[in-house]
Amino acid sequence: MKIKIISKTHAKPNKPILGKKQYQLTTFDLPYLAFYYNQKFLLYKFKNLLDLEEPTFQNDVVEKLKDGLGLVLEDFYQLAGKLAKDDEGVFRVEYDSDDGEINGVEFSAADAADVSVDDLTADDGTAKFKDLVPYNGILNLEGLKRPLLAVQVTKLKDGLAMGLAFNHAVLDGTATWHFMSSWAEICRGAQSISVQPFLDRSKARDTRVKLDLTSVKDPNASSNGGDATAEPPHLVEKIFKFSDSAIHTIKSRANSVIPLDGSKPFSTFQSLTSHIWRHVTLARGLKPEDITVFTVFADCRRRVDPPMPEEYFGNCIQAIFTGTAAGLLAAHGPEFGASVIQKAIVAHDARAIDARNEEWEKSPKIFQFKDAGVNCVAVGSSPRFKVYEVDFGWGKPETVRSGSNNRFNGMMYLYQGKAGGISIDVEITLEASVMEKLEKNKEFLLVEDGKKISNGNGKVNGFV
Predict the structure, then answer these.
(1) 178 given a catalytic annotation
(2) pLDDT digits (tens, 9 = 90+) for 236-257
(3) Is residue 224 included in any domain, yes or no?
(4) Catalytic pick from 168, 248, 275, 348?
(5) Is the pLDDT of residue 226 over 60?
(6) What is the domain-level CATH number for residue 29?
(7) Does 199 share its domain with 291?
(8) Which of 45, 252, 397, 456 is the most exposed place for a label (fewest CB within 10 A)?
């Protein structure tokens, strides 16, 4: 793949932000300093190929995006700032229009004229588009000297690729997609954004936490409970697209057994993740007594007391851990795993969140992937994010993916399916031998004898 960088600039708010703005990073932010930048990849196909000709592309696409970015940064100016820390090691994000060291948002325009949209969707892995997304292998801690957001817009043979890298110590998925939808809104012609970000991080948590990060470790070190001296396993990536009717079937099966422990009906999330957790565990061939951990990075905006607004800009997530013996998952139907997941989620209320924060503040620990748990399945992102509604004026994206950063054995990202309804795309990273078994598992794929399962109402379920 031949990619030519045409230009690289730094975007700042169109109007000066008066005064020096400083926001202390909270206990919700700090654990992710040693994660990698959070990468997103959006792929657009242009119906009118004249839009891809020069100078139309430069004037009507690249400049339009840059102009919109400068306007939306007036509200999301923290993304144009930098990380900083005081003499005691307390981290903050700051923006000062008079500071010549403020980076702004890195914006690159590139050309890959021989590459088509179909070329980039032909494979489930991230290798095909890795060079189209900035900041591969860059830790969030480097936001002390790098921009907090980097964007690369690449012209393709028949469309446009947009790769983005967000500093995960500054914002979570909810804030990321709020920013993206706001930027798109401006590019479609709005004079201002419809939903303002809530920028005061002190309302989420205001404890000063002093960190010594002189020896940050690679978050991949000894991933998923493995031996740090052993050869790392060969990991592969796969997208499983569960159709609307497949999700209905999975949810129906999880709720077909009335629980004796008083569990509520299982949600779509609990049903689907139980389905995946159980079949990944079976594919791993664990011993019955082996423990397997389920981890979800959950939004806490509505869980904390008092609740934080949905438009809170920052991280307001916390990892929820639960686990069970592999033999118990294998011996029971999907309702067992769903019940384990539901109990952990319900128990993670405001009191549990505060207790976790207080514990971390007493003994801060920078997160590594192995901390997700042994033999884990971990969930990031959310099908609630309206990723296919990010329209900059030339239509909805063909596909939305996560980049190559922050992937480890058992990590999966959930996105709304492009088909709409309650369809869900599951990006998952596993050992190659485990993935091979999962891809052949008819029960996991909802397939019988090479045919997709009918749910009896004329619709067809299944993996598509």
Answers:
(1) no
(2) 999 999 999 999 999 999 999 8
(3) no
(4) 168
(5) no
(6) 3.30.559.10
(7) no
(8) 456
Reported as a single tens digit per residue, the pLDDT across 180-223 is 999 999 999 999 999 999 999 999 999 999 988 765 666 766 55
The per-residue b/e assignment along 331-362, b for 16 or more CB within 10 angstroms, e otherwise, is eeebbbbbbbbbebbeebeeeebeebbeebee
Q: Which domain holds residue 194?
A: 4-203
* Mean pLDDT value across the chain: 90
Structural domain contains residue 218: no
CA angle 219/150/220 to nearest 5° reads 10
Q: For residues 134 and 188, state if they share a domain.
A: yes
Domain count, the chain: 2
Residue 102 CB contacts under 8 Å (≥ 6 apart), including other chains: 12, 80, 81, 82, 95, 96
Selecting among 60, 67, 124, 391, the annotated active-site residue is 391
- The per-residue pLDDT for 447 is 75
pLDDT tens-digit readout, 392-419 = 999 999 999 999 999 999 999 999 999 8
Same domain (yes/no): 191, 336? no
